[in-house]
Write a structure and sequence with these properties.
- Among the domains are: 1-56 and 219-239, no CATH class; 74-212, no CATH class; 245-387, no CATH class.
- Helix 19 packs parallel to helix 21 (475-485).
- Helix content is 45%, strand content 10%.
- The N and C termini lie far apart (84 Å).
- The relative contact order is 0.05.
- It has 36 helices and 17 strands.
- The strands form five sheets. Strands 2, 3, 4, 5, 6, 7, 8, 9 and 10 form a nine-stranded antiparallel β-sheet that branches. Strands 1-13 form a two-stranded parallel ribbon. A two-stranded antiparallel sheet has the order 11-12.
- The protein has 747 residues and is α+β, with helices and mostly antiparallel strands.
């Protein structure tokens, strides 16, 4: 069963006892000298404990009443007639060949559906989960383990029906979205944001959870911190000086958890690592795509840069919008903007007017916060507050608000309409940088390197610019990464970490050591894997100690998520860097025990076999990965290379072509396919593939070298010379010899 944790406030008694022992030991060491004077330092501050929302409500009645009907208060409840919204009157629902039945058994609510083995089983409903616009239900499938059913109740007045969140996964036990899979595990995926003061308490040895929480729902202390000290001394300042968005971000963001115990006032990046704004989570220009919540889009916005916070639009206790309709926006965007936002004074005017939006009537949010529907019925708005950019739709195939309504017209029409009627066309900004970062184009490097250091851009955008520099070769990338390591914004430092290998050896080690001493855990643990290989080298004892400490901290973050296959895959990568293939293989075996269809573990385990000279054992693993649905370009790529190593070129080409078809946005896929085609004797198709890749990604060195080489091998010296001259023009004198050789041969 799920246990409710009883929080006990610590005292200073144990600390005082330890201090006394330490003083005694010091006295023994120094002989008969007089004992030291008692320390005048104050005793350590007592730790606050959770007291519960009812205690808070005794003094803060208005705030309590506003909260009591909020989505936070209804986030998780014990099932009763009053709060179970779904039809449990012997109702049935069919999906994927499975007939699910919802019923009552006395006071209990039950569901009969397919279990992990595919057989129908009856489960009692343990908790309700949410209330609007849908309600899910949790069942206990093993002691302490709660799973969220993927059949939910449409709670909208227009809905009032059972529906399946993922119809394509219905009935497919191996699908990652089947309700019995880790993706629907409450302890790991949901609890931290639907309850207060959660401790996951997963036992990796037994696979069991003993999860606890201070309060079942998202209560007062989830946002204000434990309140016992405030109750004892109400005049004492309560909680730390929390940045408002950092209080909301742990739950309203796509992120990985690094540690438990976050409280308002503590640094967000000591407990969570926010996801980067990159596909497939976001569209190329940073618009929401997958279920990314709010934080990542809001940090892109001019609103955030100017100091707007969550509570400017949302009441902190009821979580409702402060105003209805356009009044929410015109509280600031008006002829008399608040003095708090001085930049608005420069553009003060009537915004809720056809002169601005050139429609007879318009909702601000429809143009500046287009929505996307998640979980079947849950419409959520993009919080990047962007100006519609149909020009980016034309260039990068991203959506835009104009064509969201004018679906009978194309993006070119929408772009022309905006250029004709708008006061000015949007200036280059975050969306342009993000879109360019996804392009992989050779010409993007210079722009992205500059953007990475541009203080006027949001840090989360500069992070994406740095992340995109991995395929680029010029010194601009190296300089941008070196500067990013020292940037004041931790999100920028996180972006620089990804490509530390681009730095020369000396500066790289210096950068690693600097990052391992960063004040924020997210930065330290992100840098730790890059430091692992230095432990296999001769380094100073102090450097070895620094790296060992960082790796211990990194391993601790993996242990926090030991129920997830991803954690064990990351551990395997660390063990590989430490030259321990046995430990790496054991970690990957554990990942596959948790998630048998986890493609990264299958590919990495196959690569371990290859490196150990047992490539034949890699084949079945890669075949398994390549057969999974939805298909993976990475799996097809790895399987194709395996066939080529086995001398089965035709089957290898088939898989490499599949990788290219599945993921044409990956420069590697077109390049390697061309190499394999040429090796198989099909130089015509190899050159055509390279030229197509060149048109898509621009003049990357590897593409130009391959084209020059293939044409020279075919005796097409003029064509080879053309590519050699491009190499010399762009990459310098190192290609002068090739140009001279081809010029002489072409005379």
């Amino acid at each position: 069963m799920i246990r409710r944790r009883v929080a006990i406030r610590s005292t200073s008694a144990r600390r005082a006892a330890l201090a006394g022992i330490a003083a005694l030991a010091l006295g023994l060491l120094v002989g008969c000298e007089a004992p030291p004077e008692p320390s005048e330092e104050p005793p350590p501050a007592a730790e606050a404990a959770y007291v519960g929302a009812a205690t808070c409500g005794a003094c803060h009645a208005d705030a309590f009443q506003a909260w009591a009907s909020s989505h936070h208060a209804l986030a998780m409840q014990v099932p009763t007639d009053a709060n179970v919204l779904g039809d449990f009157d012997d109702a049935s629902f069919e999906a994927g060949g499975v007939s699910t039945r919802f019923a009552r058994d006395g006071e209990a609510f039950t569901v009969e559906t397919d279990g992990a083995d595919g057989a129908l089983r009856t489960f009692p409903i343990a908790f309700t989960f949410g209330a609007s616009p849908l309600q899910q239900y949790l069942v206990e499938t093993a002691p302490g383990r709660l799973q969220a059913l993927s059949i939910a109740w449409d709670a909208r007045p227009s809905g009032q029906r059972w529906f399946h969140l993922y119809p394509d996964a219905a009935g497919h036990l191996a699908d990652v979205l089947h309700w019995t899979q880790p993706s629907h595990n409450w302890n790991s995926m949901c609890a931290d944001c639907h309850s207060t003061g959660v401790r996951k308490q997963y036992d990796a040895a037994t696979g069991a959870f003993a999860t606890t929480y201070a309060e079942l729902n998202v209560a007062c202390e989830a946002c204000h911190g434990p309140g016992s000290l405030h109750v004892e001394a109400p005049a004492t300042p309560y909680g730390g000086a929390a940045a408002e968005i950092d209080t909301c971000a742990p739950c309203h963001s796509r992120r990985a958890q690094l540690a438990e115990g976050f409280q308002p006032g503590k640094p967000l990046l000591d407990f969570y690592l926010p996801a980067a704004v990159t596909p497939p989570l976001y569209h190329a220009d940073g618009q929401i795509l997958e279920e990314v919540y709010v934080y990542g889009s809001f940090l892109q916005s001019r609103m955030h840069q100017e100091g707007v916070t969550c509570a400017d639009c949302h009441d902190a206790h009821s979580a409702r919008l402060r105003f209805v309709g356009n009044a929410l926006c015109t509280q600031c965007h008006s002829e008399a903007p608040p003095p708090r936002f001085p930049t608005l004074a420069e553009r003060a005017k009537q915004y809720d007017d056809a002169a601005h939006h050139f429609h007879a009537a318009a909702e601000c949010v429809d143009c500046h916060m287009p929505s996307r529907t998640y979980m079947g019925v849950d419409e959520r708005r993009d919080h990047s507050f962007r100006v519609p950019r149909p020009d980016l739709s034309t260039a990068y195939a991203v959506p835009n608000a104009c064509n969201g309504c004018h679906q009978d017209r194309d993006a070119a029409w929408a772009d022309a309409a905006i250029r004709e009627q708008a006061e000015h066309h949007p200036k280059r900004g975050a969306a342009d940088v993000l879109a360019l970062a996804t392009s992989g184009h050779f010409a993007a490097e210079a722009v992205l390197a500059v953007a990475a250091g541009e203080a006027g851009l949001p840090g989360i955008v500069r992070r994406s610019a740095l992340l995109a520099l991995g395929i680029h070769e010029f010194g601009r990338s190296e300089d941008a990464i070196a500067a990013g390591v020292r940037d004041a914004d931790p999100l920028v430092r996180l972006g620089a970490i990804e490509h530390l290998e681009r730095l020369p050896e000396g500066p790289r080690f210096g950068a690693v050591k600097r990052l391992l001493q960063d004040p924020l855990k997210a930065v330290r643990v992100a840098a730790a894997p890059a430091a692992a290989t230095y432990l296999t080298q001769a380094i100073a004892p102090a450097e070895r100690a620094l790296i060992t400490t960082a790796l211990d901290e990194y391993r601790a973050t993996l242990a926090i998520n030991a129920e997830r296959a991803e954690a064990h895959t990351n551990l395997a990568s660390l063990e590989t860097a430490l030259n321990d293939p046995v430990a790496a293989a054991a970690a990957l075996d554990q990942a596959l025990a948790l998630a048998p269809n986890w493609i990264p573990a299958l590919i990495n385990l196959a690569d371990l076999h290859r490196a150990a000279g047992r490539d034949a054992e890699a084949g079945p693993l890669l075949a398994r990965a390549a057969a999974l649905q939805p298909p993976s370009g990475d799996a097809a790529y790895a399987y194709g290379l395996w066939f080529i190593r086995q001398g089965q070129a035709a089957r290898g080409l088939e898989q490499l072509q599949r990788a290219q078809d599945l993921d044409p946005q990956h420069l590697r896929n077109g390049y390697v396919l061309a190499l394999a085609l040429n090796a198989a004797g099909d130089s015509d198709k190899a050159i055509a593939t390279l030229e197509s890749t060149l048109r898509r990604f621009g003049g990357h060195r590897a593409l130009l070298v391959a084209l020059a080489t293939f044409h020279r091998e075919r005796g097409e010296l003029a064509a080879a010379l053309t590519y050699a001259e491009r190499l010399q023009d762009v990459f310098g004198a190192s290609y002068a010899g090739l140009v001279t050789e081809l010029e002489a041969a072409n005379r």
